[in-house]
Amino acid sequence: DRTVQQIAAGEVVERPASVVKELVENSLDAGADRISVSIRAGGTESIRVRDDGVGIPRDQLPEAVAEHATSKIGDVDDLAGGVATLGFRGEALHAIGAVSRLTVRSRPRGAEVGAGLTVEGGDAGEVTPVGCPEGTTVEVRDLFFNTPARKKFLATETTETDRVGTVVTQYALANPGVAVSLEVDDRERFATPGDGNLRSAVLSIYGREVAEGMIEVSFDATAADHDTPVDRVHGLVSEPEVNRATREYLATFVNDRYVTVSDLRNAVLSAYGGQLAPERYPFAVLFVELPTEAVDANVHPRKLEVRFDQPEAVQSAVEAAVSDALLEHGI
Ligand code: ADP
Ligand code: MG
User: Whose CA is nearest to atom 11 of ligand 1?
Assistant: First the structure.
C-alpha cells in the first residue's frame, strides 16, 4: 500500500543527502572509477549521480527499483562486519522512487544500447531503450513531491546543499582511487583526480594550502612492538601552526567507512596536546583499520557511530600514531 511504502521510504530517504549517499554507495558497489554528482536547489529539484560502473542489464532494471530487490548481503555475518559492507538492504532505489520522480538509465559495459526506466511516486513505467554512456545515471527529480510533510521538514537550500557536500566529500576522501566530482546548480564544487593519493583528493577539495600543510600519519601494527587492537592507522593531519582551518574538521573512517566517534576525535585532539595555535583547529583525514570483530556488531551499519570492544586501547593507538607523525615534524 502506498502509505506504508512512503513510510518505509522515510527510513532510507530523509533528505537529499541521504539519497546522494545511497546512490554513491551503489556506484561504488558497481566498481565505478568515476562518479559525478550534480544537484539543483539543494537536491530538491534534482539529484543526478552518474558512474562508469558495471551497469544494470536491461532485463534487471525493473528488479533494481522493485521492493526488496535482491540485496547484495551474503549472510548475517556480513551485517556484523557492517562497517565494511555497503548496500545491504536492497531497498534504496525502491524507497527513492516512492517519494520522487526517479529515472535510471544504464548501459552495461560492452552493451550497444542503454535502457531507461522511470518511477514516479512509486509507479514504475516501462523499460525503454535510451542512448547513454557506459555505466549508470540515476536522476531524482522533485524529491518529496508527493510527501509535503517531509518536504516541509527540510532545512534551507544552503543547508541541504552543505549536507550533500559533506556526504560527497566523505566518499571522495574515503575513495581517493575513484574520481569523484560535485556540481551544485551547474557550478563545479570539486573534482578529485582519482589517482589513489589522499593528498590529491584533499587538494582538490580543500585547496593547496590545506593539502600542502598536512602531515602523513602511518602506523602499522605488524611493525609495532606492542599489542594493539588496531591493525593500521593512516591518513593526513594538519600542522598546528600552518593549518588555516577556521573550524575543527576531523574526518575519521573505520574500515573505510565514515564514522563520527568521540574516541577518535579525542585521540586526535590529545595528540596535539594543547599545541594548536589560537583560533586554529586541527584538520585531519584519518583511516583506522581493525579486525571487524573488534568493532561493535550491534551498531546499525547505516549509522555513523561504531563502538569498539576496547575503546581506550583504540584511542591510545590512534593518539600515538598521530603524535608520532607530529613528532617526526618536530611538533
Ligand atoms: P542494494 O544496493 O542494497 O542492492 P539498491 O536499491 O540500492 O539496493 O539497488 C538495487 C540494485 O540495483 C543493486 O543491487 C544493483 O544491482 C542495482 N544498482 C543500483 N545502482 C546501481 C549502479 N549505480 N550501478 C549498477 N547497478 C546498480
Ligand atoms: Mg544500495
Answer: 64
